[in-house]
Amino acid sequence: MTPASSTYQALVDSLGARGVDVTEVRRALAALEIETPSWGYGDSGTRFAVFSQPGRPRDVFERVEDAAEVHRLTGTAPAVALHFPWDAVDDYGELAQAIAAAGLRVGAVNPNVFQDPDYRLGSITNPDPAIRGKALEHLLECSRIATGLGSTALSLWFADGTNYPGQDDLRARRERLEQGLAELYAGSPAEQELLVEYKLFEPAFYATDLADWGSALLLCLALGPRARVLVDLGHHAHGVNVEQIVALLIRAGRLGGFHFNNRKYADDDLIVGSVNPFELFLIFVELAGGGRPLPRLTIDQSHNVEPKLEAMVRSVVNLQESYVKSLLVDRTALSEAQLAGDVMRGHELLLDAYSTDVRPLCAQVRAELGAAEDPIAQLRSSGYVEQRTQQRDSDTTPLKGLT
Ligand SMILES: [Mn+2]
Residues lining ligand 1 (ion), CB within 5 A? Predict the structure, then answer.
């Protein structure tokens, strides 16, 4: 017996003694699916600098290649979320083929209505109807691209908002938002989910048009059943209880998905679970205990000083571990403690699960999936990054897509 397998067996024995159905936990982890973002692989930066990394992908085809490597190592990242026009190509059939050949599928499609100079005062809330029309046309185009690529979700985030009191009429902006998205809803196919993401502030510093889960939920309720709220961990005020938002949205049947990342201050887009792993665990406790299938789970991060591929692998591994820990919560005992008003027992039951070292179990399941027992070590020893650096940084062939 190898040291790794003896550690695994010890964990299985101790979980069994606690009454955990280990087979069920392993099955659940094997079924976990995380979408990684194409935009998380390429160059990114802060407002102050972009630090290019050796071997970074230069177009969507190379970003897909890196996403496939993350899935190969972790076994849990079979879908890649795309962003347009960043991932725009002339031939979407060719892109679909490349994604399938890499063993992946397309996750959510993310339109971009925040970069064009026309959107200085907003996209679908802009006071100028012509600019609102342009934004709506891009959203509808992305809906068509999503359909063509076999994606079942359009993930919507709007940078819309105002910087000064009096800059625009708050109610008029809301009306424009509702009208524009109602047109998108009507113009998108029945199998396409519309995920509505909210964010407290930035780039708007006075009033963001979709600032919180309440404003997103009201919009979704007005639009219809396939409009659901997307929660991004970096988009709340400090101290906001995100797991409670998750519980409320699950209860309302309107939790559409997650953008995982972590933050210390604002929308920092750090590796998920790196700053506040306990919060991540508590979110999974709500997700796993909601009595519904998990919603769409996507990573939305920007890796600036850390190696991008390793950061993505670490993120998926952190999600695997957090999810497994949430499955270890003794729900029956928890419910009994809660009904009995036993405050400390209820809290202790969560700590029991959170404090369990689940790494051997995750390693075992990854191995069974044909992925890596230790994905980080395998990435480092495989030479993947070095090979891509050599190939990509010396290749002068014109690229097929936008960078
Ligand atoms: Mn996001």
Answer: 232, 259, 300
